[in-house]
Amino acid sequence: MQTSIFTQSIEDSIDEPIINEQQRRFITSVSRAHAFQLERQGLFPKHLKLDNNTNGWKLTEILAWVRSRPIAELKQEATNND
């Protein structure tokens, strides 16, 4: 079966939102340098090169990464009212 560039495949996500660096940093609270370090280690979603000076990330991949992070539990200290 021949595929056309106009035929959407399962892997093709034309309608998927792409977020910029500022949005990625807000959602993940991870610095730019740390995000690229994690990406090189395969521990963070890969960026998309939008042009020479602009990177983007698939929103669904970033949200999946955030959801995969462990949840820290806060310890409640006993209050002494002596």
Key phrases:
single chain, 82 residues, alpha+beta, three-stranded antiparallel sheet, 3 helices, 3 strands, 33% helix, 13% strand, AlpA family phage regulatory protein, AlpA
Written account of the structure:
This protein is an alpha+beta fold. It has a domain at 18-67. The protein contains 3 helices and 3 strands; from the N terminus they run βααββα. A 3-stranded antiparallel β-sheet has the order 1-3-2. Strand 2 and strand 3 form a beta hairpin. The radius of gyration is 19 Å and the shape is elongated. The N and C termini lie far apart (80 Å). The model has no long low-confidence stretch (mean pLDDT 85). This is AlpA family phage regulatory protein. InterPro entries: AlpA.
Short structural summary:
The chain is an alpha+beta fold and 82 residues long.
- How many helical stretches? 3
Order of helices and strands: EHHEEH
Uncertain regions: pLDDT < 50 for 5+ in a row?
none
**Structural shape:** elongated
Compute the CA-based radius of gyration: 19 Å
- Spatial order of the strands forming the largest sheet: 1-3-2
Outline the biggest β-sheet. Answer: 3 strands, antiparallel
CA(first)-CA(last) distance = 80 Å
- Could you estimate the helical fraction of the residues in percent? 25-40%
Structural class: alpha+beta
Portion of residues in beta strands equals: 5-15%
Number of strands: 3
Mean pLDDT, to the nearest integer, reads 85
